[in-house]
Amino acid sequence: MSCWHNHDTSSNPKTLPSKFLYHAQNTTSFDNRESFQLKSTTYNAGNAVLCTDRQTYSIRQVHNSNSIFILQPSQSVVGTAEPGEGVSAIARCPTTLELVPSASVGVEYLKRVLPRYTGPASFLGEKDNIASDVGTGAYRGREALLDDAPLSREEFHSAWTELCAFESDGNAMLPTARALHALWKSIISAATATGIKIDESLYISSIAEVVEEDGFPQSLLHAVISRLSVEQIVPVEGWANITAAKSVPWLGTVILDSNAISSEGILESMFLQEWQNLLPESWREHVSLTLLKGEYLEPAKGKIMSREVTVKAGRSSSEALAPSGKRPGKWHEKFKNDRR
Question: pTM of this prediction?
Answer without folding.
Answer: 0.73
